[in-house]
Amino acid sequence: MKAIVELDRFSSPFPRPQALFADATTLWVSSRATQKLYALDRATRHITWETETTDGQTVWGVTKVGGALYVVCGEDAPDVDARTIRRYVPGQGFDASYRVACPDGMGSHLSHDGHTLVLSQWYPQKLISIGDDGQPGRVLKAPTQIVGHCFAHGAFHLATTDDEESNNYHLERLDPATGKTERLARIGFPARALAFDGVDFWTNHRERDQIVRFNLA
Q1: Contacts (Cβ under 8 Å, ≥6 apart) of 145
Q2: Does this model's pTM top 0.70?
Q3: Is 67 left (phi over 0), alpha (psi -120 to 50) or beta?
Q4: In the CATH scheme, what is the code of domain 5-215?
Q5: What is the DSSP string of the chain?
């Protein structure tokens, strides 16, 4: 199995980077340590903006749709599964009218497939479409645990593992038309989150406080 090709690896300006979304100029990243959500300038890697959730919860996952950020929020506690999807508009704050409960209280990362939000659940190994009304829709199953996902080149791409305590992490492609998965490359470290900026993929090496940009060979 070929390995990913790391293009850039740099120290996060805050510890334990968790959620991640990348666009052409900005990285939107949360910290499990500070419980804040940040915007990083991609050119300078400086923090240009930061916020906390209204109730001090951890941001586990983030995606951007238009001018709004959608985030998965929840307590950082092993015995609490009551996570919600919130909407944040930079410059305005959290939208008090938008709070969607994750199915069965569980959820980690978010993407948008061009039609709906898509929520991943780590241990259930699921991708779940979330409609405009907040109701769950189509469910796609993954063969392994999902530690991050994004939508790229017309398909879902997943960062996965069979053993979260190991370095046995991979990049997989899930075809939304057939539900079939294909293992593309070995990541080789405990990745958290997955993003695509239109050209390259991004992930976090959280326990080393690093952010990684990569591509396929």
Answers
A1: 122, 123, 125, 160, 161, 162, 164
A2: yes
A3: alpha
A4: 2.120.10.80
A5: -PBPEEEEEEE-SSSSEEEEEE-SSEEEEEETTT-EEEEEETTT--EEEEEE-TT--EEEEEEEETTEEEEEEE-S-TT----EEEEEETTTEEEEEEEEEPGGG---EEEE-SSSEEEEETTTTEEEEE-TTS-EEEEEE-SSEEEEEEEETTEEEEEEES-TTSS-EEEEEE-TTT--EEEEEE--S--EEEEE-SS-EEEEEGGGTEEEEEE--
What is the Cα–Cα distance from 45 to 42, expressed in whole angstroms?
Answer: 5
CA atoms of 170 and 172, how far apart (whole Å): 6
- The per-residue pLDDT for 210 is 98
The length of the chain in residues reads 217
130 — pLDDT class (breaks 50, 70, 90): very high
Q: Domain residues of the chain, as ranges? A: 5-215
